[in-house]
Specification:
Structural class: alpha/beta
Pfam family, one: Amidase_2
Catalytic activity: Hydrolyzes the link between N-acetylmuramoyl residues and L-amino acid residues in certain cell-wall glycopeptides
CATH class: Alpha Beta
Number of helices: 4
Order of helices and strands: EEEEEHEEEEEEHEHH
Number of domains: 1
Strand content: 15-25%
Enzyme class: hydrolase
Strand order of the largest sheet: 3-7-6-11-5-12
Largest sheet: 6 strands, mixed
Radius of gyration: 16 Å
Helix content: 10-25%
GO molecular function: N-acetylmuramoyl-L-alanine amidase activity
CATH architecture: 3-Layer(aba) Sandwich
Domain N-acetylmuramoyl-L-alanine amidase: 22-170
Distance between the termini: 44 Å
CATH superfamily: Peptidoglycan recognition protein-like
Length: 196
């Protein structure tokens, strides 16, 4: 098989990503159509980058006593399908055919419970702060692969599916990177992220 034709997926796992399975996932409801990508931001502790704390949180291995902030989230069991570091490194925690625990109470495109039919992607960053070019490049590649693998019709931020409760990725995220990459694809972005 030619290098360009290597399979990118195996049982919902994206082969170019670093695989670190999380126990925090479940079955998607029968008949769920995975048509939404949700972009998040996360850093642990908030505003600190480069450690392994996000990976430890998603795999239930975070040392709750390692930082005072961690007491505020003590016992939290969450996950995302993917995480992109400031350097553009891509991690995967949950197979895309499984339901990750990233959206919480949410509503979008006329449906509640966005965990049921979405893919969650966390960017290492802080709400309102900017993101790195390496992250946008990795995010664009990943979204393109997801569009080829799932019937993606929508891309939104956590702030769009849980307004008033969540604010990420926030005003520092430049939606033009994704809009331009998927121009003419028919994929719908939040109204505020659409071209003027």
């Amino acid at each position: 098989m030619a290098p360009g034709n290597r399979p990118q997926w195996r049982a919902g796992w994206y082969l170019p990503a670093r695989r670190l399975p999380s126990p925090n996932h479940g079955a998607r409801p029968a008949g769920a159509v995975v048509d939404l990508i949700v972009v998040h931001s996360i850093s642990l502790p908030p505003g600190e980058y480069g450690g392994n704390q996000v990976q430890e949180l998603f795999t239930n291995r975070l040392d709750w006593d390692a930082h005072p902030y961690f007491q505020q989230i003590h016992g939290l069991e969450v996950s995302s399908h993917f995480f992109i570091t400031r350097l553009g490194q891509l991690w995967q925690f949950v197979a895309t055919d499984r339901r990750a625990w990233h959206a919480g109470r949410s509503h979008y495109r006329g449906r509640d419970g966005c965990n049921d039919d979405s893919i969650g992607i966390e960017l290492e960053g802080l709400e309102g702060h900017t993101f790195e070019e390496a992250q946008y490049a990795a995010l664009t590649r990943l979204c393109a692969a997801l569009v080829r693998h799932h019937p993606i019709g929508y891309v939104a931020g956590h702030e769009h599916i849980a307004p008033g409760r969540k604010n990420d990725p926030g005003p520092g995220f430049d939606w033009r990177h994704l809009r331009s990459a998927f121009a003419g694809s028919g994929i719908l972005f939040p109204p505020a992220a659409q071209p003027a």
